[in-house]
Amino acid sequence: MHHLSTPLKACAAAAAMLLALTACGSDNDGGTASGGTFDSALAFDSAKYTTINVTIDGVKVPVRWYKEVCYVAKPTAVAATQTTLMGTTTTIANTACGYQSMNIFVPESAAANGDTALYFAVNNGGWYASYVKASVTDGASYDSTASNVAAALKAGYVYIDVATRSRGLAAADGSWPGKAPAPVVDAKAAIRYLRLNDARMPGSASRIVVNGTSGGGALSSIIGASGNSPDYLPYLAAAGAAGIDANGRSTLRDDVLAINAYCPITDLGNADLHYEWLYTAFGTRAAVGRNPNPAGSAQLAAKFPAYQQSLKLSNGSGAALTADNMMDQIRQEVIHSAEVYMAAGGTIPDLGEEMSYASGPTTKTYVNDWLDVDNGTKKVVSIDMAKYLKFVATQATLKAAPAFDQTGMTVTGATGESNLFGTSSQKYSNFTEYGWDNNDARGDGIGYDDTGITGNRYFSLATTPVMEQVKLINPLAYIATSATAAPYWYVRHGTRDRDTAFTVSINLTRALQADPDVQEVNYRLAWNQPHAGNYDVPEAMAWIAQTLKAAAARGL
Ligand code: DHB
Fold it and tell me: Which of 40, 135, 431, 518 is the most buried (most CB within 10 A)?
């Protein structure tokens, strides 16, 4: 929403528009709100911690650990045996609330500090359900220039590991309770718990900084975009979240201050269009011999220009950001990335020389045939985009086509996000027209092959939940709407990340720049980084520190 200077004004405006809303009468800064049906069951017990000790940069730091704090009153009972993203099984101890809990770590020095930031780490790698984890372990030693966990504790922030339901989660009753928007609902429920208990807890719930990578970067982005949206209230009520009254209305806020997101796998409903457009524009798929479905790739890529046009984004120089100038936007972002790297003292090999890059534990090389730089002036002379994309697709194998809404359910090695969608009684559902129309798994009840209904028609039926699910996890559906966007954003996407198209984070950040709620978007392709996050701890932490100061100066 447009920034309103006082909560009172926001309430008056909302009442005038007859909206069932969110922020009115809620506590912003330390008071304890009342009125939520589940609030009394969700009171934080400040005495319930154990003290652990870690060593950060050689200095012993005592930390209060609030273990597995369940942030909802009606958690989903889950099966003791769960399947991981990698397809192995794991047995979990906390079947009652292990996917809706937080581990909260408070540096002893901040225990009485009601103003410090809450570093809110979402852990749903792969868009997968994340069981509650502990990033801080007793007796461990950390380097604060390499570990974001250590840097957050050293800065005196409260570090919070947040678990959420998401795809792949098996309930005790055999259903699939992690379908979209479950991870978003759970992260919002956790934020509401922090808001509800602000006066009882160290730190300030007005200073939540969300950190996440990949699936977590996507979750961070939708959390940051959709603050206080009423769309999630029925789901929050069903989960027993804080700040939901008997009429299903909100008595608490769930917007956040800042987002620190890496390689967000977002805009899932259109991610296949992005991906095939990017990797067929110069024939990259064919060039690297990873072209399993040329006709499908072409069909998906052909839909990208109209989709891009429909977003009505600007390229930053006042012109529309379209498929026609998008490749040049990517080129400019890569140039910027290389020039920032050189300005910071990095050296880039000349044309014809070997560039090296990390591939897991090994270092590999690639003959630089795409980037001409002048290390003297620290400027890029030229980039050959076709060869750049070939480099990206060589150092990590491109995904299947389609990449996100899989069609080859029966094909070994099929990957994708289809099990994030559908009802809790369905294992998965296609969520795009292409996926639905081309689903090849007879007997799964999904797709044109089983139903005889086209995707176009199926997704328009009122009884189909999928389009709503796609919307509820998509930041682009909320940016520049009446939802409250986080004012501060730091987004990174590696220059050799092939997990989603560069256009996804470009669109996200261009959209944010046009939202009046947003004060700052610090976006860059991260030089020579793969699909990864938290590789820039000193820079990201300096940004957070500066953001907290800027926010305080604005009275936030
Ligand atoms: C992640 C990676 C993917 O390629 C994807 O499609 C979703 C999530 C991840 O690393 O979290």
Answer: 431
Residue 107 token pair: 């540096």
Closest CA to 406 of 296, 265, 304: 296
Residue 168 beta carbon below 6 angstroms from any ligand 1 atom: no
Strand 141-142 versus strand 50-56 pairing type: parallel
Distances (CA, A) of 454 to 271, 408, 458, 461: 20, 17, 6, 11
Q: How far apart are alpha carbons 37 and 279 in whole angstroms?
A: 50
CA 497/CA 216 separation, integer angstroms: 15
Of 212, 243, 213, 216, residue with least CA distance to 230: 243
Closest ligand 1 atom to Cα of 124? 11
404 CA distance to ligand 1 middle (Å): 9
Expressed in angstroms and rounded, the spacing between residue 265 Cα and the centre of ligand 1 is 6
CB hemisphere CA count around 204 (13 angstroms) = 18
Higher pLDDT, residue 441 or 250: 250
**Dihedrals phi, psi of 222, to nearest 5 degrees:** -75, -35
Contacts of 463 (CB under 8 A, 6+ apart): none
Q: What is the dihedral of CA 345, 349, 355, 360, to 10 degrees?
A: 0
- For ligand 1, what atom is nearest to the CA of residue 415? 6
DSSP 221-264: HHHHH-BT-GGGHHHHHHHT-TTB-TTS-BSS----SEEEEES-
Choice among 84-93, 333-342, 344-353, 375-384 with the minimum mean pLDDT: 84-93
Name the DSSP letter for residue 48. Answer: -
Instruction: Give the 3-state secondary structure of residue 359.
Output: strand
71 lines ligand 1 (CB under 6 A): no
For ligand 1, is residue 272 a contact (CB within 6 Å)? no
Tell me the pLDDT band of 410, cut-offs 50, 70 and 90: low
Regarding the beta carbon of 505 and ligand 1, being less than 6 Å apart is answered no
Lookup: tokens for 139: 């007796």
Domains and CATH numbers, the chain: 2-263+481-553 (3.40.50.1820), 269-395 (no CATH), 423-464 (no CATH)
Residue 170 Cα to ligand 1 middle (Å): 20
Is residue 499 within 6 Å of ligand 1 at its C-beta? Answer: yes
Q: Is the CB of 215 under 6 A from ligand 1?
A: yes
Residue 91 bridge partners (DSSP): 81
Which uninterrupted H or E stretch holds 371? Answer: strand 371-374
CA of 335 to the centre of ligand 1 (A): 25
Testing ligand 1's pocket by substitution, the residue of 499, 504, 531 carrying the most ligand atoms inside 8 A of its CB is 499
pLDDT in tens, 153-181: 999 999 999 999 999 999 999 999 999 99
Do 358 and 530 touch, CB atoms closer than 8 A? yes
Per-residue model confidence (pLDDT) at position 34 = 55
What is the C-alpha radius of gyration for the chain, rounded to an integer number of angstroms? 23
CA-nearest residue, atom 8 of ligand 1: 126
